[in-house]
């Protein structure tokens, strides 16, 4: 159900951004914005030390995961969704069918696609079965609104929401129930997908190409046979892609393409150049001509460009140019189909200096003079760009998508870094959606005394929490990009919160107010964007804080002192500086035994509380250290996980030492070549890994890794947390909020599994009913049915039967999980409802 207005504020740069929810959401002075520096945190992790992302790694990791699932036991885990729903996350596209006023599709930067058929009251994920959840653009046929095309890979400049590019184009002919890959797997990210209004078999794709390398797989691609084959019809160069397109609503021979020269490297960023430009085709995309009459032509004037065509008068077009430095160059209008252009009044627009991040111009389909600049904020003109006023007031900043409801006058939907907003008065006011589970999280924590109090640090959405364990009642408690929260195990009112670059604060009144908690930490020390902080597990008054030196407080952050020298290799230089501590762990068996890892490949140990330090990096590859974990059972055992890729090495990204780091053994050789973001160990000895494609687990010290699958999609998991009193494993994802799993239900190792009688489900997919058939008569069994978010939606008890019919005509289309218990044995089966 649509909520009352719930608003956020922020400035986004790439993966991460600088936000302050106490600031007014008004035109922010450029001088103030320029002080807030960007960070490519997730790119830096994965690119170190080679400066690049391995392009085939994600695809190969998904393939490994599928093979592993086919070989391991027939037991799925049902994760329970733990929220938040009302905080939101980055949206890249919104589409509304022309014939249905209450059906919307929302594409998320790193969370897949969600569909509603009741105007936003409820949502279902419809893309989770696919390998890539980073969405670039969607398009719905106007002739058959069950036909949907999707281009994967977020095109907004930066690392992209998953660091990885997309894996091509997909098509659905049944409203998103099923999908078929339509190729173009190597085109990186997708700026636009367009269907010929007169021929559904003709489709155009604006491809930005791979982000992290120059490559010819970019430009405009065309298919004239429904995606079976493609041809590249517009190519400028190996670093210039297509970011936007427009097509004449009745004469599909006329098309427009916005080309953008862009490069992304750890040491260099290019957001424009001479090859950026606006092009037109008048023969259905076969040949193209650059449009220059009245448009910027100098190289430094041409950065990201958006193009929009009026549906009510197709001779009228608008283009918004950013220059190569990211500032607004101008908004331009053509009244003759692009032959000539006139600059509109662009001086009234908010110019924040990183307009390569925002979408640009949309035209009201009923009025050629009403346009929206979907930018840092939303600005609207009703006179063709002569004058501008703020629209969608008080929404989260950083805008990426807008959609008009053709069936409902005045209804406009907006997507930004804070989620989805609805307006029923053409943007004069709006309400925020509180039902989409797409928050991008970095870190999380659960109050040891109260499992209902869950805390999380979110990209561009601050430090947030729920005090009820609810899904829709999360609130912001501290601004900025949110990172590691902590709660004193002895006093639930004592809360610590962290924002970018080590801004650490403390509350003693249950988050009613916070004060700085960095006294004694040198301002000149280097701090990571995601600065690590942790408790001494044996004394909550003692905490540790990692800059380039390790700091300790013994009075609950009243004051700090450095207890180490610089544990890094020094500043990395360039525009992306390495040289910071990234992970700290204190042995639960000995408080003087402390481990530290850094972003430049170092692992250190002190056995005397910081008096002396030993470098124990020998035997571990030179990669960004994501986690050091002192074993909870063996004082001499320690684990290390790494980001990055092998590049010919065979030992993987997780290591174990049995002698405090004097020697290391790889325990991840069989894992795919994928970054590992976290490692935890539960009370029973099971070890879990958080990776870029989900969570893996091992039940014995043989470390035979299994996929902890079920309804957790293949999403980046940045952080895990075990709530010890309840033995619940929490997973903080980058794009799908938080999931949790009862650890007592996790069985690892096929030798430990005693399967119940074989169970068959048919039909599957099903529409009105499905039948469960057992190989033998069962005297008593229970069936729990969960939706894709782990919410229980149906329960059945059956007795003395071999078959059970489950009616599903009342169920919404989507993926469900049937947890079937016969005696003490349980199996979980997946069911697709059409």
From TrEMBL:
Pfam families from the UniProt entry: Por_Secre_tail, Sortilin-Vps10
Superkingdom to which the source organism belongs: Bacteria
Residue intervals of the Sortilin N-terminal domain: 169-298
Keyword Signal: yes
InterPro entries in the record: Secre_tail, Sialidase_sf, Sortilin_N, WD40/YVTN_repeat-like_dom_sf, Xyloglucanase_GH74
Domain Secretion system C-terminal sorting: 762-833
GO process terms (BP): xyloglucan metabolic process
Keywords (A to Z) from UniProt: Repeat, Signal
SUPFAM superfamilies linked: Oligoxyloglucan reducing end-specific cellobiohydrolase, Sialidases
Name by which UniProt lists this protein: Putative secreted protein (Por secretion system target)
Organism, scientific name: Marinirhabdus gelatinilytica
């Amino acid at each position: 159900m649509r909520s009352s207005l719930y608003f956020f504020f922020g400035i986004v740069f790439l993966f991460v951004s600088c936000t302050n929810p106490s600031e007014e959401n008004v035109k922010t002075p450029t001088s103030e914005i320029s002080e807030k520096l960007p960070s490519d945190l997730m790119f830096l992790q994965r690119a170190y030390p080679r400066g690049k992302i391995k392009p085939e790694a994600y695809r190969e990791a998904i393939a490994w995961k599928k093979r592993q699932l086919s070989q391991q036991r027939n037991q799925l885990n049902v994760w329970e969704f733990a929220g938040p729903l009302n905080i939101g996350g980055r949206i890249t596209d919104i589409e509304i069918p022309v014939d249905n006023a209450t059906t919307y599709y929302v594409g998320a930067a790193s969370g897949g696609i969600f569909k509603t058929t009741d105007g936003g009251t409820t949502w279902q994920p419809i893309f989770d079965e696919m390998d890539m959840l980073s969405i670039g653009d969607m398009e719905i046929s106007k002739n058959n609104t069950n036909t949907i095309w999707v281009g994967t890979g977020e095109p907004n400049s930066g690392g992209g929401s998953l660091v990885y590019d997309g894996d091509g184009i997909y098509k659905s002919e049944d409203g998103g129930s099923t999908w078929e890959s339509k190729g173009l797997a190597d085109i990186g990210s997708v700026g636009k997908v367009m269907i010929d209004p007169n021929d559904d078999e003709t489709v155009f794709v604006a491809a930005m190409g791979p982000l992290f390398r120059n490559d010819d797989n970019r430009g405009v691609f065309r298919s004239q046979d429904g995606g079976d084959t493609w041809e590249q019809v517009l190519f400028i160069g190996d670093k210039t892609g297509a970011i936007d397109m427009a097509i004449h609503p009745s004469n599909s021979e006329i098309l427009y393409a916005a080309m953008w020269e862009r490069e992304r490297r750890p040491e260099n960023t290019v957001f424009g150049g001479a090859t950026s430009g606006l092009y037109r085709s008048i023969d259905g995309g076969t040949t193209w001509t650059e449009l220059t009459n009245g448009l910027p032509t100098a190289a430094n004037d041409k950065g990201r460009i958006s193009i929009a065509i009026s549906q009510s008068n197709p001779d009228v077009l608008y283009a918004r140019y950013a220059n190569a430095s990211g500032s607004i160059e101008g908004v331009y209008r053509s009244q003759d189909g692009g032959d000539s252009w006139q600059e509109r009044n662009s001086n009234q627009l908010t110019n924040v200096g990183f307009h390569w991040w925002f979408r640009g111009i949309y035209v009201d389909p009923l009025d050629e003079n009403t346009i929206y600049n979907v930018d840092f904020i939303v600005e609207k003109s009703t006179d063709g760009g002569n004058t501008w006023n703020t629209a969608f007031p008080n929404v989260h900043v950083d805008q990426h998508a807008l959609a008009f409801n053709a069936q409902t006058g005045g209804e406009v939907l907006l997507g930004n870094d804070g989620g989805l907003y609805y307006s029923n008065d053409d943007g004069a006011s709006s309400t925020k959606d509180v039902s989409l589970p797409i928050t991008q999280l970095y870190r999380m924590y659960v109050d040891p005394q109260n499992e209902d109090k869950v805390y999380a640090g979110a990209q561009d959405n601050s430090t947030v929490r729920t005090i009820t364990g609810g899904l829709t009642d999360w609130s912001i408690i501290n601004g900025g990009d949110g990172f590691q929260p902590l709660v004193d195990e002895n006093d639930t009112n004592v809360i610590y919160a962290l924002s970018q670059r080590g801004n650490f604060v403390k509350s003693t009144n249950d988050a009613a107010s916070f004060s700085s908690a960095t006294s004694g930490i040198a301002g000149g020390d280097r701090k990571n964007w995601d600065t690590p902080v942790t408790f001494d597990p044996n004394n909550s008054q003692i905490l540790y804080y990692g800059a380039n030196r390790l700091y300790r407080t013994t009075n609950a952050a009243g004051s700090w002192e450095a207890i180490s020298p610089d544990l890094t290799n020094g500043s990395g230089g360039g525009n992306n500086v390495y040289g910071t501590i990234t992970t700290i762990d204190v042995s639960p068996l000995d408080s003087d035994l402390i481990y530290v890892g850094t972003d430049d490949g170092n692992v250190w140990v002190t056995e005397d509380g910081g008096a002396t330090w030993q470098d124990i990096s020998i035997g571990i590859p030179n990669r960004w250290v994501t986690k050091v974990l002192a074993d909870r059972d063996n004082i001499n055992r320690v684990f290390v996980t790494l980001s990055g890729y092998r590049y010919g090495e065979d030992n993987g990204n997780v290591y174990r030492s049995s002698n405090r780091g004097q020697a290391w053994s790889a325990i991840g050789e069989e894992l795919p070549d994928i970054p590992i973001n976290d490692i935890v160990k539960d009370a029973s000895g099971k070890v879990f890994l958080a990776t870029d494609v989900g969570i893996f687990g091992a039940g014995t010290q043989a470390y035979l890794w299994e996929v902890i699958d079920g309804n957790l999609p293949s999403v980046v998991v940045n952080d895990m947390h075990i709530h010890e009193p309840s033995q619940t494993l929490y997973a903080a994802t980058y794009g799908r909020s938080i999931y949790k799993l009862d650890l007592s239900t996790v069985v690892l190792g096929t030798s430990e599994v005693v399967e119940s009688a074989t169970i068959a489900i048919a039909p599957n997919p099903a529409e009105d009913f499905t039948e469960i058939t057992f190989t033998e008569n069962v005297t008593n069994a229970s069936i729990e049915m969960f939706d894709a978010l782990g919410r229980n939606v149906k329960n059945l008890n059956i007795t003395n039967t071999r078959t059970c019919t489950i009616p599903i005509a009342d169920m919404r289309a989507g993926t469900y999980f049937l947890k079937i218990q016969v005696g003490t044995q349980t199996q979980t089966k997946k069911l697709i409802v059409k």
